[in-house]
Structure formats: structure tokens, C-alpha cells
Write a structure and sequence with these properties.
3 strands
Amino acid sequence: MHDTTTEPTTITGAHRELLDQLLDRWSLEVLDRLCEHGALRFNGLRREIPAITQKSLTATLRRLERNGMVERVVVSDRPVAVEYRIAPVGQGLQDLIDALLQWSTRHMADVEAARERYDDAEAARE
């Protein structure tokens, strides 16, 4: 249901690109952890998300930083220590992330059942 007091938002290429990058394999999880903890160092994020590789985490953090969602803050220079934090633009993401995770949890059984029906129908066609 759309709010009738404003015009509906048109989904543009820029919207699709941003959402693809925010909802990709690791970004949502990195954002969730940073929203939860406030700030984490690289290795802290690796401990929080053990399945992510160093290369994937680096690429994800760079992509999120480029999109203005995450800030990279040097906290000391000897030895160099860097923290990652949610940037002001990303501050409102926690409620959206929580809503997506709650929705997906609530509907996962239905999604799995739909996938199974689809796969069974596809197998029957072959």
C-alpha cells in the first residue's frame, strides 16, 4: 500500500545498484554487526562473521565505504589500528535490517516449501 500524499518512488538504475550492493552476500551482515557494536576493527568483524574470507570482507567494507554507509577511522598510527563504523547516512539502517531479518525468519518455511514445489515441478518437466 502506497502513501497517497506523495508520488510513488520510481525505481531507477541508481536504486537497483545501491540495493544490490547493500543486500549482497555479506553487506547486510557487516552492516548488522556494525549497527550492533557501534565500531569494530577488521579482525573483530572477521570474528563476528567467521564464514567471510579476508578478501570478501575487504571488498565489502570498501563497497560500503564508497556508498557512504561505513566510515573507516584510523584510531592509532603506531601500530596502525583502524575501526569501521556506521556512517551518518547508514544510521537508519538498523531498523530496516531488523525488519528484513524478522520478515525472512517469519517466512523462511514458506520460501523453502515454494522452492521445493518449484524444484519438484522442474524435475518432472525434464
